[in-house]
Amino acid sequence: MGKVFDRIDDKLRAFITEQPMFFVGTAPSVGGHVNVSPKGYRDTFAVLDDHTVAYLDLFGSGSETIAHLRDNGRITVMFCSFTRTTRILRLFGAGRVVRPDSHEFDTLRGHFGTGHTGIRSVVTISVDRIADSCGWSVPKLDLVEERSVLDEAHTRRTDADFARRIAGDNATSIDGLPALEPDHPVPSTVWRAGQDAGTEVTAIAGSDRLPR
């Protein structure tokens, strides 16, 4: 039987940390399309406190989640165990997008691996319902490795490429809801782990990521 929790305790934090991926679900307020996005890279998700989580959002071919959060803020994050021990954990709440040129981003970035080359934003979520379920029909799978394809693809893209994406397929959702703003920062302005400390960036400074 599933259980509802009053907070993200140490056991739930451990379960979250063990999962190599998670899923994000959002939807527009009226009509439109429900979106579900799979997210990889273990170092892109963090539990900030007992009722707050966040993840590092990387550039992609669409921006449904950002558009839906700007529309209504509703979001569900799902973690699913593919190991011998079955479990599904869902975090329901209200999300918002933190731009990389904001002071808040600077305070959050230490929770993530900032070596990723296509950083778009951080999504923070105030969690109001925490519930698990059995997951008995989910297959048992073995993790071979994380894919580096996305980071590698972002490395090859220029500022002009990202600017076209910001003004193009990241500007609105597939239903026409506004997503990225025209002046959204390109990834080259975001400080990343491994950069020379003297490299000029847009007001993003600080230490490398902290242990999760």
Task: Sum up the structure in keywords.
single chain; 212 residues; alpha+beta; Pnp Oxidase, Chain A; 5 helices; disordered C terminus; Pyridox_Oxase_N; Pyridoxamine 5'-phosphate oxidase; Split_barrel_FMN-bd
Task: Please explain how this structure is put together.
The chain is of the alpha+beta class. The protein has a single domain (4-189), classed as Electron Transport, Fmn-binding Protein, Chain A (Pnp Oxidase, Chain A), CATH 2.30.110.10. It has helices at 10-18, 64-71, 103-108, 149-156, 159-167; strands spanning 3-5, 22-26, 35-39, 45-49, 52-58, 74-80, 88-98, 119-133.
Give a short synopsis of this structure.
It comes from Nocardia alba. The chain is built from five helices and eight strands. It has helices at 10-18, 64-71, 103-108, 149-156, 159-167; strands at residues 3-5, 22-26, 35-39, 45-49, 52-58, 74-80, 88-98, 119-133.
Spatial extent as radius of gyration: 17 Å
CATH level 4 superfamily: Electron Transport, Fmn-binding Protein, Chain A
Please state roughly what percent of the residues sit in beta strands, choosing from under 5%, 5-15%, 15-25%, 25-35%, 35-45% or over 45%.
25-35%
Class of secondary structure makeup: alpha+beta
Residue ranges: pLDDT <50 for 5 or more in a row?
Answer: 196-212
Task: Output the CATH topology.
Answer: Pnp Oxidase, Chain A
Largest sheet: 8 strands, antiparallel
CATH class: Mainly Beta
What would you say the CATH architecture is? Roll
Protein name: Pyridoxamine 5'-phosphate oxidase
InterPro entries: Pyridox_Oxase_N (IPR011576), Split_barrel_FMN-bd (IPR012349)
Organism: Nocardia alba
Domain Pyridoxamine 5'-phosphate oxidase N-terminal: 8-108
